[in-house]
Write a structure and sequence with these properties.
seven-stranded antiparallel β-sheet
Amino acid sequence: MPLRPPSPRIFKALYALGLGPLVGRFVLLLTTRGRKTGLLRVTPLQYEEIDGAILVGSSRGTKADWYRNILADPHVFVTVKSRKFRGLAEPTTDPSRIADFLQYRLKRHPKMVGAILRSEGLPAVPSRPDLERYATKLAMVVIRPE
C-alpha cells in the first residue's frame, strides 16, 4: 500500500499545540484570502527561506487553490516556526526560476526531494534541462515580509 502524505489538519494541529519550531523546519502555514468566498484559508506547505524571502512551490502548478487565491490577492499571512508575519506574494511560472528553486531544494534535502523527482519520472541525478522541463508543469511563489 503506498504511503499517503499527512493530512493538512495534522500540521495545523501541531502548530496550534506550539510545535511550530519543530515542524516549521520543513512546513509553514500560509494564510490566503479565498478568491470566491473572501474567507481566510490556511494551507501547510513545504518551503525554503533564501535571503529573507520565503519560496513555496506548487506541485499542482497554477491549479492549486492557494496559488489561485494569491493571484486574486497577493497579501498573505505566514506562520513559520515561531514567527508570524504579513507578506506580499509574487507568483511565477518561470521555468528557470523554478528550476533554481528545485536545485536548491535538491541540494538541501537530497533524499526527500530526490524521491519526489524520481516519482515524477526524472533521473536520480536530474540535469538542469531535466529540471527546467519538469518546472514547466509547476508554479512558485516568493513571499517577502511587508
